[in-house]
Amino acid sequence: PGEGSHDVKYDIPVKTTQDSSLPWLFAGQPKSACQIRDERYCSFIMSMDRVCNDWTRGELSKEAALKNVEFYVSSIQEINRVDAEKVRELLLKQGIDDQRRLDLQHEYQDLQKLCGKKGRRFDNGMRGEGRKSAACC
Predict the structure, then answer these.
(1) Fewer CB atoms inside 10 A, N or C side of the chain?
(2) Cα distance from N-terminal residue to C-terminal residue, the chain
(3) Structural contact between residues 108 and 136, judged by C-beta atoms closer than 8 angstroms
(4) Residue among 133, 39, 131, 129 nearest 93 (CA)
């Protein structure tokens, strides 16, 4: 995904260091590559949720919504593998459950159809094997 391919106002930054209740002892400790990867995946899902919410409220055109969602789907696909249970837990803390992730897939497919693009099929993605394959969310 290149610059200008989406609206950065939907991006959710991921910290590469730990937050701590004892900052003098633990703050600034680097997160593992796995933690960062899982959190990036979650940030992309959360960004898609923001885009779809704006689109359904009429605050974003279907074309702009699709452009943004496609950026996040592409970013998710680049991640390749995540810890399914950890991601599920992180997303639940943000109010995004399995049903909402399924809804996001359907909204993405609806946007593709509305914009005259061929919709894509998704498998069950993260369900079960501790990995994300071709699924969007």
Answers:
(1) N
(2) 17
(3) yes
(4) 39
- Do the beta carbons of residue 90 and residue 39 sit within 8 Å? yes
Q: Which residues pair with 118 in a beta bridge?
A: none
CB atoms within 10 A of CB 117: 12
d(CA 62, CA 55): 7
CA 36 to chain centre: 13
- Give start and end residues of each alpha helix (H) in 1-135: 23-26, 33-56, 62-79, 84-93, 98-114
- CB neighbours (10 Å) of residue 44? 25
pTM of the model: 0.80
DSSP assignment of 10-40: G-----SB---SSHHHHTTPBPPHHHHHHHH
Residue whose token pair is 């701590």: 20
Residue 30, beta-bridge partner list: 17
Which two tokens mark 103?
A: 């809804």
